[in-house]
Amino acid sequence: MFAPIAVLNDWSNGINYIFAFIIGIGFGWVLESSGFGNSKKLAWQFYFRDLTVFKVMFTAIVTAMTGLIFIDAFGWIDMSSILINETYLWSGAAGGLIMGIGFAIGGYCPGTSFTGFATLKVDSYFYIFGALLGMFVYGEVAPFIEPFYGGKYSGYMGTVTLQKFFGVSAGVVGFVIMIIALAGFFGAEWIEKKNGNIVKS
Amino acid sequence: MKIKITGKLLAAYTAMILAVIMLFLPGSDTRKFSFKPEDLAAAIASGDDAITASTLSEWIIQGKSDLMIIDIRSEEDFSKGAIKNAVNIPLQKLLKKETLNSEFNVPKTVVLYSNGNSHAHQAWLVLKSAGVDALVLQGGYNAWVETILNPSKPVAMEDDEVLKYNAALSVAKFFGSAGEIKESSASENKSAPVNKPAAQPKKKKLAGCG
Predict the structure, then answer these.
(1) Residue A125 pLDDT grade (very low, low, confident, very high; cuts 50, 70, 90)
(2) In B137-185, where does DSSP find H-type helix?
(3) What is the extent of the structural domain holding B57?
(4) Is position B204 within any domain?
(5) B25: nearest CB among A73, A159, A179
(6) For chain B, how many helices (H) and strands (E)?
(7) Does residue B23 lie within any of the structural domains?
(8) B50: domain CATH number?
């Protein structure tokens, strides 16, 4: 577990598993009740028919971002202890592309595929099998493409954030992302009205 | 239907208001200082706080990739002569919060030196507290000039002594000295030893302080 709930590190595994179970069930329940266990709904965002996923994802991003910026401003959280993954630009972009293609083809992302698994959707079984196969193949290939995923062609940038990169405060980045998000929401609704086909969950 | 639209607009307006407030929030310093006297004392006692001139010269010749050598003397001293690949960040500038936040994002081994010892050790304390993996060059630039650039001639002309001396001379040559004090040109020393390629936002700043 990472900050700000790093205190869980001091607790026993048993208690942590209970927490993981509760959080996992809660997350899965939210996904399922938003209709994200249905691969059709997920896939149709790529055809600009049903942008629910896009809106939910952006809502989550904007909510977490706003919360962190304000909590930081109130001095309630130590931002420096928050784990930020290191950026490997090119390998990250390639990974995102592969993940996106898989998402569009399979209609699931890794998390939702397990939601589909829990509600006995047959296509999710194939998806999970494919994901595991992909991991296996990557594991076998990884040593040969080391310069790309971790070496000099990976575009390593350290633990960089947008505000650090542009040299502005976190609030400025937050403002810009909020504008993008709002434009995205209204754009998404407009597109849905135009050629939408909302999948009933 | 009408209520839904107002709800949506309400959410959008709330988001906009929050965004505008955000714009003016200062944001906290990203680098956290944690002063751990025991760790510092342990490093000092075991000698892990310093590096000898000869080890440093080996690192430079080997091209150790995560090495960053910082010359904390004034720009004037730096331009008169400095260690190959060192970047000049005078002490006052180095100990500014902005510098600490911008220069040490990528993990690297930092070697500090001034003319002698004390200023470098003061900088070492601050960098260590800021979580930077820092070392002090033992004896500073003076020691570097004495041992690396001007290796002393062996007293007895025994074979292995002479061999060692010749090796030391070739090291001195590598660093641009012919066995006697020679002021290396300032432009030569400007190149930063930064290892990672491309897209480093701090590049610009480095160039500005050469």
Answers:
(1) very high
(2) 140-144, 159-174
(3) 37-147+175-209
(4) yes
(5) A73
(6) 11, 5
(7) no
(8) 3.40.250.10
Residue B152 lies in a domain: no
Complex ipTM above 0.85? no
CB-CB under 8 Å, B197 with A69:
no
Position A127 scores a pLDDT of 92
Positions in chain B short of pLDDT 50: 1, 180-210
| Cα B22 off chain centre by | 34
Tokens of B30: 């990203």
Distance CA B205, CA B101 (A): 12
Tell whether the model's pLDDT for residue A148 goes beyond 60. yes
DSSP string, A83-134: --PPEEHHHHHHHHHHHHHHHHHHS--HHHHHHHHHTT-HHHHHHHHHHHHH
What is the number of domains present in chain B?
1
Residue B163 is assigned to a structural domain of this protein: no
Torsion of the alpha carbons at A124, A125, A127 and A129, rounded to the nearest 10: 160
**Domain extent listing, chain A:** 6-195
Q: Are B28 and A72 a contacting pair at CB < 8 A?
A: yes
